[in-house]
Amino acid sequence: MSYVRACALSALQEDVPKKVELNGVPVAVVRTDEGVFAINDTCSHANVSLSEGEVEDCMIECWLHGSSFDLRTGKPSGLPATRPVAVYPVKIEGDDVLVSVNQEN
């Protein structure tokens, strides 16, 4: 599994998604009180950017129709989304947030 640098840890505000593109994959990186998570930035229901939504209780909400996705698993909490989105392994080295988009969980 290979990791690429997504951003600086110090650049992440808690519960504020940061959109990055890693190897052509749109990714939302989110720092919460539970850790740092990386989730595919495209809603599985409406094909819009999840990083434009709000984060609360380790869930990211799609701003268009209100579906929320668990940052840990990618699973939706309810309708209208029914399919999960990919989540990616994250590791922290110093101030670097590293994400592996090669292997989906």
From TrEMBL:
Q: Which UniProt keywords are listed? A: 2Fe-2S, Dioxygenase, Iron, Iron-sulfur, Metal-binding, Oxidoreductase
Q: Name the domain of life this protein comes from.
A: Bacteria
Q: By its UniProt entry, which InterPro entries does this protein fall under?
A: Rieske_2Fe-2S (IPR017941), Rieske_2Fe-2S_sf (IPR036922)
Please list the residue ranges annotated as the Rieske domain.
Answer: 4-99
A molecular function GO annotation: oxidoreductase activity, acting on paired donors, with incorporation or reduction of molecular oxygen
Keyword Signal carried by entry: no
Protein name per UniProt: Putative dioxygenase
Species per Swiss-Prot/TrEMBL record: Kitasatospora setae (strain ATCC 33774 / DSM 43861 / JCM 3304 / KCC A-0304 / NBRC 14216 / KM-6054) (Streptomyces setae)
